[in-house]
Predict the 3D structure of the following.
Amino acid sequence: MEYRIDPKTGNRLSILGFGMMRLPRGITGTDQEKVTAMVGQAVESGVNYFDTAFVYPGSEVATGRALAETGFRDKIFLATKLPHQQVRKTEDLDRIFAEQLKRLQTDRIDYYLMHNLPSVTLWQRLVERGVIDWLAAKQADGFIGQVGFSFHGKQVDFLELLEAFDWGFCQMQYNYLDVNYQAGQTGLKTAAERGMMVVIMEPLRGGKLAVGLPAKAESAFKAAEPGVSIASWGLRWIWDQPEPTVVLSGMGTMEQLTDNLATAATANPGMLSQAQHDLIKRAIDIIEAGYKVPCTACNYCMPCPHGVNIPDCFTAYNTRATQGLIAGMSQYFSGVGMPNPDRYSGPDKCQACGTCERKCPQNIAIIDSLKEVKKHMEPFWTKAVKLGVRIMMG
Ligand code: SF4
Ligand code: SF4
């Protein structure tokens, strides 16, 4: 495992951080046994940065249990996030934080983030509710280490936010498709120049840069380095740069963890050759030509009050665009419950209420995009499929 230094604290952090957002699931929810096994394996292999959030369903509880069961709490740095939209009065800060300590079975949070802070305006809303004094008191008493924010908004807002407070660190989306998107490379470099540790999230765009690349891009990567995973290309592209401190990967299986550990064992700035950079550039061109909707499957738009499975609609639509009709349609049929009318969660259910669009960090025009999904994923013949299955089911 390679390590990089948090410039504000001198903490030596593993370049691979464990994002506790997409945990393995069993029939009744999070599969705790697998989570604990993966956390144990990660720490034993050198991972020492774990990132969760109040609003990730079941994540803080599962993370706390895994750290308690392995006994590894004191070996790692723990990051979690304040759901700032839920803070209506100063007392809410204490209530939420106390709940987080309880869930995580710990007495301190090493890295505490304002979750998905989109602008200075919303930071000011928190300031009016006393967050600055509250954070200072918590830091003075040893309950919080560094204070930061996570970000999915526009670059101009990111740059303003950097100036709005004496942040210890920040967390931003970054991958080879997002150089000029959201905070982007300019945001990354600006934060690093300010002496901030930068944590990278969505390095593989919700897994889309690992599984489901267009066949042409995938075979180009495989031909260049036959024994190396597709995910490794995306991670190495980031670690090739000196500015990111920790790269979070939302690992859901032991296989993903093992693969990422292998990549992180030798990843250093400047490791990629010009030929490797050229290959990634070629893959970017292929991918961008193929995707219809820039959805990262982050789930922030969910749940839809009318039951639309928004990310699965877009994932299947993009799969169809890049991997063909059969792959896309089979993903769509299982994802949105077609043709079972009781499980159906496709675009027909959309009432255009707009709730999801206000939450989407990628600023996707979800309502219009769902109409596109409807048009392309539910052509006339899907009615015949539905009817046929209904007849078969009696
Ligand atoms: S706009 Fe449509 S998809 Fe979005 S939340 Fe409303 S009903 Fe659901
Ligand atoms: S539509 Fe937006 S909010 Fe919803 S999953 Fe996709 S990227 Fe996330």
